[in-house]
Amino acid sequence: MEVKVFAEVQLPQQRVYSSGVCFPLVLAPNPSSHVPYSFSEAIRAHNPWLQSRLHDAGAILFRGFSVKTASDFNDVVEAFGFDELPYVGGAAPRTKVVGRVFTANESPPDQKIPFHHEMAQVPEFPSKLFFFCEVEPGSGGETPIVLSHVVYERMKERHPDFVQQLEEHGLIYTRILGEDDDPSSPIGRGWKSTFLTKDKTIAEERAARLGTKLEWFDDGVKTVMGPIPAIKIDQSRNRKVWFNSMVAAYTGWDDARNDPVKAVTFGDGSPLPAQIIFDCQKILEEECAAIPWQKGDILLLDNCAVLHSRRSFDQPRRILASLCK
């Protein structure tokens, strides 16, 4: 199908693989197109083509389209037709903005957020993620992304025994939550927000559906998630992917309540080797693409194929997000 509305553009921060795939794919308005589509109408008209391109690339950055507000962004998300995923079980402090749109992680700007697949620590995770740059950063603040199967292949080559242990045992994630959100922490979502209830009985029921055990304290709760697989098979692409939050938990789940070293273990409870986790962190940085945000940018990620992170930044910066089944 000939698509005249979208033009593929090249940016210096993209990665280009030997297969010819550009990561991420960057689409802009086609300057020679005179089709009177709005952006949302163009998405609806060319949705199968866009989803095919997303499948090939794993991530699409839309740049230069007329998306100015949270409501505009919500219209774009709706145009793709994905079902909404309620944010139950996630760790990031977020605030609902409009419709299906939330703030991205609200932790302080000096904090980096390590690479992770969104909600990889629970069984019900989004298949697609949208990010929108409402206010571009003063400096920094990129959202680096990396192809998960590339990370798996490099880890398998460098640490085959470790990867085999992961495949056999999976991972257990442990996190201590307060009652209310702690905006000073990148994992500061309290249990009431995490389980979308103030009722401990309902929280228990929702945790159980996620395979999560709860141990209550006077001022909070300990959550134990897993064992849960750390390596998955991407069925649509027929390849293994590094689908976990191991590096994020071990290096980033650090606040007044949580010790990151205790936050993640092998599924049999044994500790993870620190030197291999830090080597994995190095691989993630080596393989990532980090394109500076511009106002109006929308980044669409296939959550099964791509890990993402956040670099520290100087304010102002406002990135919004939406999660889809």
UniProtKB/TrEMBL annotation:
Q: Which UniProt keywords apply?
A: Oxidoreductase
Residues spanning the signal sequence: none
Task: Specify the superkingdom.
Answer: Eukaryota
Residue limits of the TauD/TfdA-like domain?
A: 42-320
Matching entries from InterPro entries are given as: AlphaKG_dependent_hydroxylases, TauD-like_sf, TauD/TfdA-like
Q: Which Pfam families match?
A: TauD
Please give the Gene Ontology molecular function terms for this protein: oxidoreductase activity
**Designated name of the protein:** TauD/TfdA-like domain-containing protein
Q: Which organism is it from?
A: Nepenthes gracilis
